[in-house]
Amino acid sequence: MNKLFLLVVGFAFSMSNISYAGDAKAGAVKAATCVACHGADGNSMAPNFPNLAGQGEPYIIKQLTDLKANKTRKDATMIGMVAALTPIDMENIAAFFSAQKLKIKPIPMSDAIKKGQDIYRGGITGVNIPACIGCHGPKGEGNPGAKYPALSGQNQVYSLKQLKDFQSGARFNDEKSVMRDVVKRMTVDEMQAVTSYIAGLK
Questions:
Q1: CA 68 to chain CA mean position, Å
Q2: What distance in Å separates the CA atoms of residue 157 and residue 170, rounded to the nearest whole number?
Q3: 107-129: per-residue pLDDT in tens?
Q4: Which of 9, 57, 162, 177 has the most neighbouring CB atoms within 10 Å?
Q5: What is the Cα–Cα distance from 21 to 19, expressed in whole angstroms?
Q6: What are 129's strand-pairing partners?
Q7: Domains along the chain?
Q8: Which pLDDT value is given to residue 16?
């Protein structure tokens, strides 16, 4: 099983050099309505909104597509924002935010951060939870080709809500239930720890 997992991860990361055709300049214009929450450069204005700077283009496109469909991922605020977007608009917006520089605030080490680091790097063996590093990379860089998001520097409040939503089933746009299978065995303390670690990961 471990060998199979490593082969899958290796294949996924081999796809990370795929290029996309979005127009970042056109995306900057379309993203004008996004800046109130996500910031002019993709660094969000509040901890409950995700940073989009440096995020992989295919991941952003998938989330916008899913939010517009309003089935597997629902958000009362975002549904109005994405309603008029075309697939080309989504590609351009994704290209714009992907090209921006993520600003990561250093977070001092603490017992909680250390616990989160251990989970991110080694998983939780007692309940068969895999390490986050396998899909999201050693520095939280994600894997664009496999549509695994970059987690580095992501706001802790936002990340924790997403894990809770996956756990409750409120969000279920993860391929093959990957995230739902992981978080269903996690405690709130464990989710808080790993999302706190991610917030300062770089």
A1: 18
A2: 17
A3: 999 999 999 999 999 999 999 99
A4: 57
A5: 7
A6: 124
A7: 2-13+105-199 (1.10.760.10), 16-98 (1.10.760.10)
A8: 44
